[in-house]
Amino acid sequence: MTFTYIVSVQIHLKLPISLPLIHPSLGSRLLERDVLASRVREVEEENRQIRLQLSQSQGLAAQPAEGNYGNQQWVASADTGPEDVENTAEERANHSECSRSPTAEKCELIHVACVCAGHNASRDVVTLVKSILFHRRNPLHFHFITDTVANQILSTLFQSWMVPSVQVSFYDADELKSEVSWIPNKHYSGIYGLMKLTLTKALPSNLSKVIVLDTDITFATDIAELWAIFRKFTEKQVIGLVENQSDWYLGNLWKNHKPWPALGRGFNTGVILLYLERLRRISWEQMWRLTAERELMSMLSTSLADQDIFNAFIKQNPVLVHQLPCFWNVQLSDHTRSEQCYTEVSDLKVIHWNSPKKLRVKNKHVEFFRNLYLTFLEYDGNLLRRELFGCPSQASSESTVLQQALEELDEDDQCYDFRRERIMVHRVHLYFLQYEYTPTDDGTDITLVAQLSMDRLQMLEAICKHWEGPISLALYMSDAEAQQFLRYAQASEVLKNRKNVGYHIVYKEGQFYPVNLVRNVALRNVNTPYVFLTDVDFLPMYGLYDYLRKSIVQLDMANTKKALVVPAFETLRYRLSFPKSKAELLSMLDMGTLYTFRYHVWTKGHAPTNYAKWRTATTPYKVEWEADFEPYVVVRRDCPEYDQRFVGFGWNKVSHIMELDAQEYDLIVLPNAFMIHMPHAPSFDISKFRSSPSYRYCLTTLKDEFHQDLSRKYGSAALKYLTAQRNI
């Protein structure tokens, strides 16, 4: 008699408590941190017991009444083919192995390698890393083989992310190109799709094992489970792979389809366990080269990049491969057997979006997979800055400096939050979208520099229409807002056709808008000799880009310290027939359609521009600095940065102009240039300034401290600023 047991277990996994890298209160709250740490350990132990209960229950539910099933992991060998085990051992391996899997040692360092080139792949890597960090319980060391673009993006991101117990190393892909450039490759990944073949040479010689991942991978479990499979390798096995889930290597997709040789269905190289130490011992570099040379004589080129060469090698050396259960690489391309990798979607471990269609691929569970992917895509990366308790790690120099700076702050200071904001490190993702820039030959090129948040996104198309030169924009956004922006930009005909706009994401954190920090991110990532420092809610006059380049030459900006002032105007109308000339602007000014900027609420901000003189001026004229002057200017790229103590509303531009004056920049007003401010709802920060006495008190305090710092930096020449402020 056969009995069927149905086991129902309700599982409520508890998410790990995320502690920020730097606790907002120190000293007196260390005890509270210890309590939290203890609670985290309790939660992790509870989760471990729950997972154990789940795995035991699944094993009981799946076990047949008679006989035993073994953990029959298929190992490729010279006399074993996949057709022998297609629907038996493979399925049992996929659905039974999880309860018997070895585990990585606590605090064991896990090494992960990835080839990444370009702007789009860099975005994909971030989502991959988030999914790994979310589940991980072990220290990690990421090894990135990158081009120049990805190196700049990812090095800045990880340096500003400061995730505890995470190390990152970069390797120059250009130095490896000669190793694979001789191989013709039809795959869309190009030469970078062959780079995984070079890892024994690229990675440090003392690195014995590494998990190699494609950028289009999403983890649904702790990567330590995958790392632990290295312990199941036999002495001869050097590489771990999941069987290819499409019919590609069977050669039956179309008439005369001739794939590279492979063992049965072949293997997919989106997830690889590389035993580097053993690979070097068997002369891997020589072996894959000989394999590629032999097959290319008849195949002429690769169709699936490195995957073809790996498979041809395995065909000749099947004893060297360890086949992984296919839930470690569920391949979501069209017409695959991926649905056979799991009985429930909760069984899967790794999702591989290996179709060019990516999220649009066909699969009956694709909605679940897509939602999982989108969860990590929009997940707040700041929450992943949590410590691994029980795994001591050496803090980076950046986090040590930050910690010391925080400890020096007085928590009882009324302006503590303002001071803390000044030294807070925000995650930064440079060049979020494709960026291309070709320098001009005359050395006069100029970049428009601005910052914005989600509520000013609608200004981007208009600015791009008014300014044809390069643009550097820093966007202050959450992870979810950054993805909204990405969709907006990709849907806009204007934005997607402009490649000379650098979009740099500064991720939200804290209670204030760090406006000057965001401005500095845009300023630092300029590639031209000159910058036009503006705000995103201003539209420059048509032709301003060319006019400024000519003015740079005429005023000898290369050899003199000048700040060229672009007079600012405003309209209160949301629909405006934009003036095409100075004469037309003056007519609209007289008719009351336009006004000089902020004349009715903050006259001092732009009064020194001397609009009366500008009306009839035909040549540039010099003006003197006055208190609270905050014009929009063109300067050399090496100008001083904005002072980051000023956050939110107030004095963020005033302080910058003051420092330009302290450094003896001449303020020169351009007679035939103008810009117009477009109306919008008041910002949240100006509302806080108007309603909060504490906010205004702290702004006054920061002003005084800025004056003192200016005096220390520039000596007696800076006394005029303090005097001017007292006379207001």
Automatic annotation (TrEMBL):
| Required cofactor names | Mn(2+)
Give the record's membrane topology: Single-pass type II membrane protein
Q: Which residues form a coiled coil?
A: 33-60
Gene Ontology biological process terms, A to Z: protein O-linked glycosylation via mannose
GO MF annotation: an example = metal ion binding
What keywords is this UniProt entry annotated with?
Answer: Coiled coil, Glycoprotein, Glycosyltransferase, Golgi apparatus, Manganese, Membrane, Metal-binding, Multifunctional enzyme, Signal-anchor, Transferase, Transmembrane, Transmembrane helix
Assigned GO CC terms: Golgi membrane
- Please indicate if the UniProt record lists Magnesium as a keyword: no
Alphabetical list of InterPro entries matching this protein: Glyco_trans_8, Nucleotide-diphossugar_trans, Xyl/GlcA_transferase
Q: Where in the cell is it found?
A: Golgi apparatus membrane
Its pathway? Protein modification; protein glycosylation
Q: Which CDD domains match?
A: GT8_LARGE_C
Q: State the source organism's domain of life.
A: Eukaryota
Catalytic function, reaction form:
3-O-{(1->[3)-alpha-D-Xyl-(1->3)-beta-D-GlcA-(1->](n)-4)-beta-D-Xyl-(1->4)-Rib-ol-P-Rib-ol-P-3-beta-D-GalNAc-(1->3)-beta-D-GlcNAc-(1->4)-O-6-P-alpha-D-Man}-L-Thr-[protein] + UDP-alpha-D-glucuronate = 3-O-{beta-D-GlcA-(1->[3)-alpha-D-Xyl-(1->3)-beta-D-GlcA-(1->](n)-4)-beta-D-Xyl-(1->4)-Rib-ol-P-Rib-ol-P-3-beta-D-GalNAc-(1->3)-beta-D-GlcNAc-(1->4)-O-6-P-alpha-D-Man}-L-Thr-[protein] + UDP + H(+); 3-O-[beta-D-GlcA-(1->3)-beta-D-Xyl-(1->4)-Rib-ol-P-Rib-ol-P-3-beta-D-GalNAc-(1->3)-beta-D-GlcNAc-(1->4)-(O-6-P-alpha-D-Man)]-Thr-[protein] + UDP-alpha-D-xylose = 3-O-[alpha-D-Xyl-(1->3)-beta-D-GlcA-(1->4)-beta-D-Xyl-(1->4)-Rib-ol-P-Rib-ol-P-3-beta-D-GalNAc-(1->3)-beta-D-GlcNAc-(1->4)-(O-6-P-alpha-D-Man)]-Thr-[protein] + UDP + H(+); 3-O-{beta-D-GlcA-(1->[3)-alpha-D-Xyl-(1->3)-beta-D-GlcA-(1->](n)-4)-beta-D-Xyl-(1->4)-Rib-ol-P-Rib-ol-P-3-beta-D-GalNAc-(1->3)-beta-D-GlcNAc-(1->4)-O-6-P-alpha-D-Man}-L-Thr-[protein] + UDP-alpha-D-xylose = 3-O-{(1->[3)-alpha-D-Xyl-(1->3)-beta-D-GlcA-(1->](n+1)-4)-beta-D-Xyl-(1->4)-Rib-ol-P-Rib-ol-P-3-beta-D-GalNAc-(1->3)-beta-D-GlcNAc-(1->4)-O-6-P-alpha-D-Man}-L-Thr-[protein] + UDP + H(+)
Its function, per the record, reads:
Bifunctional glycosyltransferase with both alpha-1,3-xylosyltransferase and beta-1,3-glucuronyltransferase activities involved in the maturation of alpha-dystroglycan (DAG1) by glycosylation leading to DAG1 binding to laminin G-like domain-containing extracellular proteins with high affinity and in a phosphorylated-O-mannosyl trisaccharide dependent manner. Elongates the glucuronyl-beta-1,4-xylose-beta disaccharide primer structure by adding repeating units [-3-Xylose-alpha-1,3-GlcA-beta-1-] to produce a heteropolysaccharide. Supports the maturation of DAG1 more effectively than LARGE1.
Family to which this protein belongs: In the N-terminal section; belongs to the glycosyltransferase 8 family. In the C-terminal section; belongs to the glycosyltransferase 49 family.
Protein name (record): LARGE xylosyl- and glucuronyltransferase 2
